[in-house]
Each structure stands twice: as structure tokens, then as C-alpha cells.
């Protein structure tokens, strides 16, 4: 089967246009660097076809001419691994998606160039690694029943343990973003909110504390938990709004509605 392969000059243009970074916004691996113990450089990038190179290949478009198929326009720069994935998972990576990756990546690279090299890596990380990170942050909260299930709150020690783990998970996520980037600020604020809750309940013995509306300690614990849920709710709703991530399930039902910068309280207090 004939393949319309890219010629070297086309590959070079694609590598340059992407600044040698993988164009997959969730990857961004650098595909060039020095070869140790050698004068030579090392390239691990891959010029991938958006419209397939051969009739039996992924994303083949019979409407393309041979010239269109081998043009810069029809290529996207990826790392080897991503190049492999987009071809093996063709349905998950249609041509429109790859075109969007390429367009966004090149636009971002153009912006980074104008900001100067010293901030380049930071910008790369903060501009592009964030949608995935925002989703991971939200998933951490969706997974924790204490934010929406009434029952779990009846075991204060279980709440404490869950929040302790959550705090560690949030700290770990901070390794994936640049210090001071918008998403880092969100992570720090979430951590601070949880710390406020611990400060509010530290004088209680959470192992023995039980649901009892006559017990002032219990009432204080319940109030602190309600404040925590509300504060977390606002932050997660704002984060989901900023990244246009749709929330669903019981956790989402508990969240305040966030509408373009204005928080609208729902009926429940
Ligand atoms: Zn990649």
C-alpha cells in the first residue's frame, strides 16, 4: 500500500512550529535535547499525519490530494508515544481533535515566544497542563462522600481520615503545576480551607464524638463541617466553571451554582 510520507523539510517545519514539544495538551513532552557523552543532539519527536498517509491507515481522507497529504498543514508534532496512541486509538483521536491540538499548541508557543524564554517553561506548564489537572482536582472531591453524603458525617473520625488523605493528594498535585500559577493558587486555597476545618475541630476527640444534637461539641463539629462543605463547594464550582468542566452526580447537587463570576446560592443553607 503506498504511503504519502512527509519529507524532511516538512518534518523540520512541524518540529520548529511546535518548539519541539509534543502538541498533545496533556503530554507536552520535550522531544529534543542533548545526547550525553556525545556532541550530537537527540530527537524523540514524530511528525504524525492528521489525515492518514495510506488508505488503510488511521484518519485516511480520500478527499485529500497527495500534495495535501504531505503538506505541513496535514501534520502535527507529537512525541513517539503520543504518535503511537493517536494512530492506535483512531476513534478517540479524530482529525478535528488533532487539528485543535495543533492550533492551540502553536498559538501558545507563539505567545510564549513573545513573553521571553525565562518564563517559557512555566507558561507551557501553567497554560496547558491545567485542564487535566483541574479535572483531577475535581475528581478528588467527587470521590469523597463526606462532601455530599449525610451518613459519612456521622463518623467524625472517618471525616478526619478522609480529609487528611485529601490534603496529601492535593499537595501531590501541586508538583504538577508551576508555583504561583492560577491552578496552584486554587490548590493552596483548597488546602487552607481544609486546615481551617482542622483548626476548628482540633479540641474535640473525633474518635469518640458521636452524632448527638444535645452535645455542644457535636453541634460545633457539624457547623465546622457545613462551613467546610460550603467553602469547598464554592471553590470547586468556580474551578469547574473556569475550565468548563461539567459536574454531575450527588456531589454536583451539593454545589452552589456558579454563573460567570457570580455565586448564586441555592435554596439550602
Ligand atoms: Zn506526547
Describe the structure.
- The chain is mainly alpha-helical.
- The protein has two domains: 8-119, no CATH class; 129-264.
- The protein is 51% helix and 8% strand.
- The protein has a two-stranded antiparallel sheet. Strands 3-4 form a two-stranded antiparallel sheet. It has a two-stranded antiparallel ribbon with strand order 5-6.
- Helix 4 packs antiparallel against helix 5.
- The structure holds zinc ion.
- This is HNH endonuclease.
List keywords for this structure.
2 domains, elongated, 269 residues, binds zinc ion, two-stranded antiparallel ribbon, mainly alpha, 10 helices, 6 strands, two-stranded antiparallel sheet, disordered C terminus
- Bound molecule kinds, no repeats: zinc ion
Query: For the residues shown, what is the average pLDDT?
Result: 84
Number of domains: 2
| Oligomerization status of the protein chains | single chain
Radius of gyration: 24 Å
List the helices and strands in order: HEEEHEHHHHHHHHEE
Task: Give me the secondary-structure topology.
Elements: H1 8-17, E1 32-34, E2 41-43, E3 45-49, H2 66-69, E4 75-79, H3 80-88, H4 95-115, H5 120-128, H6 130-142, H7 156-173, H8 182-201, H9 216-242, H10 249-254, E5 257-259, E6 262-264
Antiparallel strand pairs: 1-2, 3-4, 5-6
Structure at a glance:
The protein is mainly α and 269 residues long. The chain is built from 10 helices and 6 strands.
Amino acid at each position: 500500500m503506498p504511503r504519502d510520507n512527509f519529507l524532511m523539510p516538512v518534518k523540520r517545519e512541524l518540529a520548529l512550529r511546535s518548539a519541539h514539544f509534543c502538541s498533545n495538551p496533556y503530554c507536552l513532552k520535550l522531544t529534543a535535547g542533548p545526547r550525553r557523552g556525545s556532541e550530537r543532539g537527540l530527537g524523540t519527536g514524530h511528525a504524525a499525519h492528521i489525515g492518514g498517509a495510506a488508505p488503510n491507515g488511521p484518519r485516511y481522507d480520500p478527499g485529500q490530494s497527495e500534495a495535501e497529504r504531505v503538506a505541513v498543514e496535514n501534520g502535527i508534532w507529537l512525541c513517539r508515544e503520543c504518535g503511537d496512541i493517536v494512530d492506535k486509538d483512531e476513534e478517540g483521536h479524530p482529525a478535528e481533535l488533532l487539528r485543535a491540538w495543533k492550533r492551540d499548541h502553536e498559538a501558545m508557543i507563539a505567545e510564549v515566544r513573545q513573553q521571553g524564554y525565562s518564563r517559557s517553561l512555566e507558561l507551557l506548564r501553567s497554560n496547558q497542563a491545567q485542564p487535566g489537572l483541574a479535572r483531577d482536582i475535581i475528581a478528588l472531591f467527587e470521590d469523597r462522600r463526606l462532601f455530599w453524603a449525610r451518613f459519612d458525617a456521622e463518623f467524625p473520625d472517618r471525616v478526619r481520615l478522609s480529609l487528611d488523605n485529601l490534603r496529601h493528594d492535593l499537595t501531590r498535585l501541586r508538583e504538577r503545576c508551576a508555583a504561583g500559577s492560577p491552578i496552584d493558587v486554587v490548590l493552596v486555597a483548597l488546602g487552607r480551607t481544609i486546615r481551617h476545618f482542622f483548626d476548628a475541630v482540633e479540641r474535640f476527640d473525633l474518635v469518640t464524638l458521636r452524632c448527638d444534637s444535645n452535645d455542644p461539641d457535636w453541634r460545633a463539629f457539624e457547623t465546622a463541617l457545613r462551613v467546610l462543605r460550603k467553602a469547598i463547594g464554592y471553590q470547586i464550582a468556580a474551578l469547574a466553571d473556569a475550565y468548563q468542566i461539567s459536574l454531575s452526580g450527588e456531589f454536583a447537587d451539593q454545589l452552589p451554582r456558579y454563573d460567570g463570576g457570580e455565586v448564586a446560592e441555592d435554596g439550602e443553607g
